[in-house]
Predict the structure.
Amino acid sequence: MRILILGGDGYLGWPTAMRFSSRGHDVHVVDNYLRRRAHEEAGTDSLTPIAEDLGARVRAWREVTGREIGVTEGDLTDWEVVRGVFASFRPEAIVHYGEMPSAPYSMRDRDHAVFTQTNNVVGTLNVLWAMRDLAPDAHLVKLGTMGEYGTPNIDIEEGYLEIHHNGRTDVLPFPKVPGSMYHLSKVHDSHNIHFACRVWGLRATDLNQGVVYGIHTDETQLDERLLTRFDYDDVFGTALNRFCLQAVIGHPLTVYGKGGQTRGYLNIVDTLQCVELAVNHPAEPGEFRVFNQFTEQFSVLELAELVQKAGAQVGLEVEVRSVENPRVELEEHYYNARHTKLLDLGLRPHLLSETLIGSMFETIERYRDRVDVAHILPRDRWRPPDR
Amino acid sequence: MRILILGGDGYLGWPTAMRFSSRGHDVHVVDNYLRRRAHEEAGTDSLTPIAEDLGARVRAWREVTGREIGVTEGDLTDWEVVRGVFASFRPEAIVHYGEMPSAPYSMRDRDHAVFTQTNNVVGTLNVLWAMRDLAPDAHLVKLGTMGEYGTPNIDIEEGYLEIHHNGRTDVLPFPKVPGSMYHLSKVHDSHNIHFACRVWGLRATDLNQGVVYGIHTDETQLDERLLTRFDYDDVFGTALNRFCLQAVIGHPLTVYGKGGQTRGYLNIVDTLQCVELAVNHPAEPGEFRVFNQFTEQFSVLELAELVQKAGAQVGLEVEVRSVENPRVELEEHYYNARHTKLLDLGLRPHLLSETLIGSMFETIERYRDRVDVAHILPRDRWRPPDR
């Protein structure tokens, strides 16, 4: 199958590209190095030393496996780039990770908020119009986020909700109450993609993903030049990955506020499994299918305590410390999100265990001299300074 | 009160500015003449001859009433324009009509879709950031649209829905299934504004307006130089206004498809009443309040038949003709939308009557030599040509 990976230089995009290539698919990646540039501007970097660009990555992949991956260095908000890739590659499936993915980044100031929403919404609109005009039978597998739902006081369903109201019934999109300018951009995308399916008959699967943790997949372990990035900084790092790094370097685990914030989590190897399942079982023409993509729910405090316990096993003394929450969010709330559709398709979850955390410790230990402690505490605040 | 009117050169914006000015408020209008430019490009124009720019409009207003209205000619997507207006005028209320309002325009092609969403979303984000930093106590009165809801098979509530699910309950945003790239942009706005209220404590009222009809308000009738625009073309014209014009010039009333499309409608004088009620009864800090702003529901066919009947009263022979529907929408559907909150605040509706239609006929007759028949039939289609 011809599979286009948008955002193919990222934490998940690059491992996904290698996975589909290793399965024998014809893979083409697009990336504009937005994440790399944001790190350069901020003076931060991936913990893992990644190859210098996509050219170096696909050369290493060829040397290690004999397989080819095509590359376009370009911006999805540039219509000529998107049109050109669709016209020449003629994708049958599009895996779309190509967005600005950080909530703190999007909340920094007006410029970053407007950039985030414009970048994500326009990039995705371009993909939809390219599908409409150049690849109407292709299947879009779009990475959404569980954060689109927020933390409602009812069970979260997968994309839609059957609503009974005044004696009548309809199945409608699950209401969204997202928590940042970034999460809002994903909600906007969801509405736009739903429309393109309804009105143009496109087929799409929205993967509302939880928080991903882990460093390695089968392919990243083949050669150090094939490593994927691992962000631990305040802008691009995510809860469990950051806690593991903090444990290794002897920094207190920074829990925001009370730590009762509960979210869905999954291992990076399960992200690849889910994306493969979605690609191999496409949506029907006109269908906008939504899967909640995570395997377990944890509160932030539970995660911190798991890391503390795993640390004790290997002789690390780990402190858990509450810091002022930079976000505006409920710190104690009901949370129960359904996630059965990917299991029904065959997902076999790799659940979080002390063993996995221990192996993350080992990899982090190997690169600990690359850690910059100055970029661990949160700086971007959801509220204006005076309120 | 200092009231800022965004989109103050438009069909509703200009009459709203005059209304608040006539009440003794300090009014400032902002507009970038987007609508005038779109008409120039398309070779179309308002039926009514409007003053050449905002400068001419406010001069005429001053001559007729002795009152001043401030003007900024500028684009809301330009942060320096928005920042400058907020810093100097320090609004206490902001009435926001300043968006690209046409569904057919937004569906023309990729460029128009991307422009519509970028223009509307970025303009509104700029307003929200300006409020956050420069006018945190001001009240935003934002014009939304009933089209955000689509045509669900359940009763439409005003913005929120109490949902009972698996034994638990929450009040959540009413699910949205909008029908064009334009309507989607309004849904995006709604989510962004809701967020700004929740997280920054801003106060906002979203007026989900139905289709507006009518030509005159108390103020537009004072002097011909104070007329507001009246669009009848395929891009900016709306159902009832266009039907009245078609009746006068002897063109068949163009009903799209079966004509069972049911929507909420209101008279332009009730738009002004509703906006005044919202401004005079502001939302609480942190509150995102949603009102459904219309007074009556009609199907397109019912409207056409009303116009036909009113035409017969004054000797016009009016033909109703079904044309191929350029849109993708249900032509027969359940529709029942609540609209009690503005009535509770004191709205006294001016319902549609043959008398009102008759008086619209008279005004249209006065300007019938300005009509260009070439721009009445729909050209923008929701589906690609080959499907």
